[in-house]
Amino acid sequence: MKKGVGLVLLSVLFALSVTGQTITGLRELRLTGSDGRVTTLGLAEDRPQVILVLAPDCPISQKYIPTIKALHQVFKDKVDFVGIFPGYFNKEEVSAFAEEYGLSFPWYIDREMSAVAALKATVTPEAFLLTPDMQCRYSGAIDNWFYELGKYRQTVTDAYLKDAIEAVLSGTPVKTTQTQAIGCIIEQSQRSTGHSHSH
Predict the structure, then answer these.
(1) Comparison of pLDDT for 19 and 178, the residue scoring more
(2) Which of 146, 149, 151, 143 minimizes the C-alpha distance to 184?
(3) Which end of the chain is more exposed for a tag (fewer CB within 10 A), N or C?
(4) 49: pLDDT strictly greater than 60
(5) Pick from 41, 48, 165: which is nearest to 115 by CA?
C-alpha cells in the first residue's frame, strides 16, 4: 500500500470514529449474556465504562487478555469493564474463551451486531471508554504494543486506554482520544450463531 493511500484510509477510519460523540441507545440494546439469556447491556449510570470488542479466535485478542485483566484489576472499583463479542461467534466458543483466559467481567454476544455498529468497531480487540452519560472519550487500541498485524514492540511506550481512564477519573482532558486499533477485521455482514472465517 502506498503511503498516501494509507493516510487516506487512516483518515477515513478516524472520520468514522465515535470519539467525542454521545452513543445514544447503547444501554437499551439487547445482547445475549454469558448465561445465554437476551438482556440489555449492564452499563452503570454512575461510573465510566470500558467496552472491549473481542474475538475468541483472534490471536491479538488472546495476547491482550493479560493486559486487559491487569487494567480491570487496577480500575474495577471505579470503572466498569464489559466485553462484547461479534454475533458470528456462538456461546460455546465465547464461554470456552472466557474460561480459558479467566475473564472476570461481564461479556455479551452481539447477535444483531447492533453494539458493534453503534460503536463503529472495525477490529478486535478494540477499546472504547465511555463516561456515565455515554460520551465516548477514547476509542482504538489498548496500547501501542502492536504496530502492524503480526508485528509488536518489545516494550509498550504508550498505554492509551490506561492513560485515558486515569484522565477521565481525574477530570482532566484525555491526551490521546483515538488511535487505530490493530487486530482482526470484524465481519460486519455476518449475524449467525456460528462462523466460518479466517484471519
Answers:
(1) 178
(2) 149
(3) N
(4) yes
(5) 41
Does pLDDT of 14 surpass 70?
no
75/46 Cα distance (integer angstroms): 15
**CATH code of the domain made up of 3-185:** 3.40.30.10
* Residue ranges per structural domain of the chain: 3-185
Pairing of strands 80-86, 107-110: parallel
Residue 189, pLDDT > 80, answer: no
User: At CB < 8 A and 24+ separation, what contacts does 42-47 make?
Assistant: 42/80, 42/82, 42/106, 43/80, 43/82, 43/130, 43/134, 44/80, 44/132, 45/132, 46/132, 47/78, 47/79, 47/80, 47/132
